[in-house]
Input
Amino acid sequence: MSKLPGNAGVSVLGDKSLEFYRDPVSFYRERIEKHRSRVFQCRLLNRPTTFICSVQAMRELLCEKSNVFQKDPTDLMTNMFGDTIVTTNGEEACLLRLSLTSLFSGSCLESSSDYITSVCVRCLKELSLSRQPECVYSVFKRLGTELVLGLFLNVRAEEQPELFQEITQLCTQHWHGLISAPVNVKVPLWSSGFSTALEARDKLMDIIKDKLENDTQGFVGTLRSLPLPDSSCASQHLLLFISALIPKALASLLTSFTLALSGNEQEEKRRRAIEDPDYLHRILLEVQRLWPPFIGGRRIADKDSTLGGFHVPKGYGAIYISHAVHRDPEVFQQPDNFLPERWSGRNAGQEHFLCSFGSGPRSCIGSKLNDVFLKLERLPALQPVCLCQGVCIFFFSSAAVLLSFLP
Output
């Protein structure tokens, strides 16, 4: 057992949070080169923290030692969403997972397959017909928002445009609370970002509670009937499921997918992906590997332990960086190259080495939906790719439709 490379720094003055969040990729690459190790330590959020950039150490953190490394109970996610499947620990997290699993078994979402396809086709067709340059990220974020609010809250943009727009704006304001300093200040003519986010959360909760009281159909109707710990639990989870985080992640993945497959030189890849669902699946895995939508995830050591052969003291933080883990050269040869064929060759069956959406017992609950939807005409199965723990968006379906419109 070796000492962690690097320096945890001193309280406050030694904190590297600003440097890390300004450019996470440069941050980890510089330190990997400096320490010649894909596991090292720094001070993050004013806590000594182990940085995980290897597949082996990530698997230890999230799988083999998931009972040692716990969610941080003071995390901003808890402040903004309350106690949910993402923020709780121990038995409470297990019970929530068991209760919510039925929501993602497919039965309560199968009737939405036509809606999902229609939204994807309409949004992407509008993009292909546009005569002006478009920011595809913005288009895809709108697509993700329509899917999230339609599936999880029964609010569809074409049927309730004013309510849809109101919720969209509130979700954006609420999301900004996660990237703002947690200072609740409100004075005449000015409010802090965190204060504005809390106000948006309260308004969203009013809308959600009204839905839970009056809607009996779809996801909302099923959620309200689950045996959850208390009356606020369903509302808090719906707030999580409709958060702006999900459309942003979907937009990130679809934008990367578009950039990887657009252009005349990629015509053969596009043709093959349209004809072969397995090849499309390998492309999506490679997009997720190279351009994960999230930085990673953070845990706290509940007792002394080890990661990657290095000693991690009790109380230390541990953060895995998806971008770095997915480029571990010991697992992925030519780690910076876009090679979908790796998933039918050397890395076949190693999808569990990806950690964009977690791994192990706390991985995304939406993974249960992978085989729910039937094949539609020439489109591959509506196979979901999880976009955050506890939420699933149909990236596979969106990408399949998108292929028809790529230049």
Summary: The chain has 16 helices and eleven strands.
